[in-house]
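[Discussion] Sanity-checking designs against the backbone

I'm trying to build intuition for which residues belong where. Below is a structure token string of 129 positions. I'd appreciate it if someone posts a full sequence so I can compare it with mine line by line.
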């Protein structure tokens, strides 16, 4: 699936950049978004996780998992969502990479699909600086 720049959709003159961005991909069985922000010296990505988890639509369904993955502080939490009845389950995560913080969210039709999707995304993520 291809991602598109959500900012460019809103305003073609303002696109995502190294310092901050907002990408989305979707189809009838999946909605996924990735956001990032320049945050030098930040070791705790919780603030961006709180940004991507919409308190009006998303409910954290378990405690957050915190782990160190390839020198990145990673937080993951399963969620349920009322954003759409077709995709009621999901997951959200955030991690630090160099001078940026990233957050990721997915909505899926099955609860068990979210965590493997995040594992795949993070496995492909490179923290090039």
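Best answer:
Here's mine. Compare freely.
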């Amino acid at each position: 699936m291809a991602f598109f720049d959500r900012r460019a959709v809103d305003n073609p003159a303002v696109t995502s950049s190294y310092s901050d961005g907002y990408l989305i991909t979707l189809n009838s069985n999946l909605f996924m978004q990735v956001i990032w922000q320049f945050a030098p010296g930040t070791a705790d990505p919780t603030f961006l996780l709180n940004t991507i988890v919409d308190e009006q639509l998303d409910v954290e369904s378990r405690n957050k998992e915190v782990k160190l993955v390839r020198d990145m502080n990673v937080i993951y939490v399963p969620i349920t969502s009322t954003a759409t009845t077709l995709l009621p389950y999901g997951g959200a995560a955030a991690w630090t990479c160099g001078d940026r913080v990233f957050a990721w969210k997915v909505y899926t039709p099955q609860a068990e699909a979210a965590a493997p999707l995040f594992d795949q995304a993070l496995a492909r993520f490179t923290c090039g600086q």
